[in-house]
Amino acid sequence: MSILEIQDVSMRFGGLVAVSDFNLWLDKGDLVGLIGPNGSGKTTVFNIISGFYEPTAGTVYFDGRDTAGLRPDERVALGMARIFQNSRLFGSLTVLDNIMVSYHVRLRSSLLGAIVRTPNYVHQERQAHEESVTLLAQLGLANVIHEQAASLPYGLQRKVEVARALATKPQLLLLDEPTTGLSAEETSEMMDFILAIRSDFELTVLLIEHTMRVVMGCCPRILVLNYGRTIAQGTPGEIQGNPDVIQAYLGEDGNA
């Protein structure tokens, strides 16, 4: 069953066409890579899916629901979560507090209840704390739970960002270049981390990544964008040998 369907989506900024007639489907449990040269439209696609942009044309369905008009936070509540290319942790907060922030999307108390700290709100906050601790332990991050987020090595910060996304209890996880800035060793650890959480949390994952060994090593299916259009899709082997993909990345002298 499809969890995400994108039908004939286009995005224009004035006279610039950033994405044109884009189509994508993700079945539950899929892990799909979205690649392409710089400026090919990958992040625009993520912004459309997550609600930061409203497409000029076309439709995005999430779990069978038309997402038109839904704000990013409303999409999170439906079961989407995203990490961005650049770190967006609350650096001055602890790792635990960063995770608890995400749990608030699931709290059902009113603003007044939060202000006066009603018994219901206190109960939900305590539950969020317990679930945050459990989640961090499950992800192998229990030893940094009380560390200030900004003090962590960058590889651990990226894992905490993924953990914060998981705290919203998503069905669909959007990963925007999760290995940017990581060392070769940290990149390998992140690959294992992504594969593990996909299995353990029964997630559907859409991944943007420039590091080809990550995409080829993690994603059974890959789509390639160039100038806002899909130029190829298939298995890693099919993508590696596709002449249109080679030309898009290397130009006319692709044989070099």
Protein model, in words:
- This protein has 256 residues and is an alpha/beta fold.
- The chain has a single domain (2-253), classed as Rossmann fold, CATH 3.40.50.
- It is 39% helix and 25% strand.
- It has ten helices and ten strands.
- The protein has helices spanning 42-50, 72-78, 95-103, 111-116, 119-138, 154-166, 184-200, 212-218, 236-240, 243-250; strands at 2-13, 16-27, 31-35, 57-62, 65-66, 80-83, 172-176, 204-208, 221-226, 229-234.
- Strands 6-7-8-3-9-10 form a six-stranded mixed sheet, sandwiched between helices. A four-stranded antiparallel sheet has the order 2-1-4-5, with helices on one face.
- A hairpin with a 2-residue loop joins strand 9 (221-226) and strand 10.
- Helix 3 (95-103) packs across helix 5 and helix 3 packs parallel to helix 6.
- 36% of the residues are buried.
Q: How much is the average pLDDT?
A: 91
Largest sheet: 6 strands, mixed
Total separate domains = 1
Strand content: 15-25%
Relative helix content: 25-40%
CATH fold assignment: Rossmann fold
Give the low-pLDDT segments: none
**CATH superfamily descriptor:** P-loop containing nucleotide triphosphate hydrolases
Q: What is the CA–CA distance across the termini?
A: 42 Å
CATH class: Alpha Beta
Counting DSSP H or I runs of 4 or more residues, the number of helices is 10
Helix/strand/pairing class, anyone?
Answer: alpha/beta
| Oligomerization state | single chain
Short description:
This protein is an alpha/beta fold and 256 residues long. The chain has helices spanning 42-50, 72-78, 95-103, 111-116, 119-138, 154-166, 184-200, 212-218, 236-240, 243-250, and strands at 2-13, 16-27, 31-35, 57-62, 65-66, 80-83, 172-176, 204-208, 221-226, 229-234. Helices cover 39% and strands 25% of the residues.
